[in-house]
Specification:
There is one protein chain. With about 130 residues, the chain is mostly beta strands. The chain folds into two domains: about 1-70, no CATH class; about 70-134, no CATH class. Helix content is about 5%, strand content about 35%. The chain has one helix and seven strands, in the order E-E-E-E-E-E-H-E. It has one helix at about 95-100; strands at about 5-10, 15-25, 30, 40-50, 50-60, 75-80, 120-125. The strands form three sheets. The chain has a three-stranded antiparallel beta sheet with strand order 1-2-3, with no helix packed on it. A two-stranded antiparallel sheet has the order 4-5. It has a two-stranded antiparallel sheet with strand order 6-7.
């Protein structure tokens, strides 16, 4: 995740939060303003229904700051992730949470931005946002 422009969205019912983030290395992403940039999300919405979270946002196509990347008419590298669900933790190898020996039993709290996990919790794909299938 080096030098990555990130949009992180969360939702609980009809309440949502969508912010513009950046990470210069593999450390925790920080909001663009931390790096001297701006939150370039121009519109956002989100909701959670029947266990499914839907996040929508708008962002300018042409980047104007070092913390942003332009959206181009080509395949783009897209990283996705979702948080851990209580009682359905995914770690490899298994952590103390799965083994029942965690020092902090509520390490993953509701609506807290913290990501750890593997398998179906995260992935990478390539998308052309200008393509016919999008």
């Amino acid at each position: 995740m080096d030098c990555t422009d990130i949009v992180i969205g969360t939702a609980r019912g009809n309440y949502h939060r969508v912010l513009d983030y950046y990470t210069r290395d593999r450390s925790t992403p920080r909001v663009d303003t931390f790096w001297g940039g701006h939150d370039d999300i121009t519109a956002a919405s989100g909701f959670e229904e029947n266990g499914v979270t839907t996040i929508m946002f708008r962002k300018k196509i042409k980047a104007k700051e070092p913390t942003d990347h332009s959206i181009v008419d080509d395949l783009m590298h897209v990283i996705w992730a979702r948080g851990q669900e209580p009682g359905k933790y995914v770690h490899s190898p298994p952590s103390g949470l799965e083994k029942g020996s965690a020092a902090v039993g509520d390490f993953y709290r509701q609506d807290e931005l913290k990501y750890h996990g593997h398998g179906g919790q995260r992935g990478v794909t390539r998308i052309n946002f200008f393509g016919e299938d999008f």
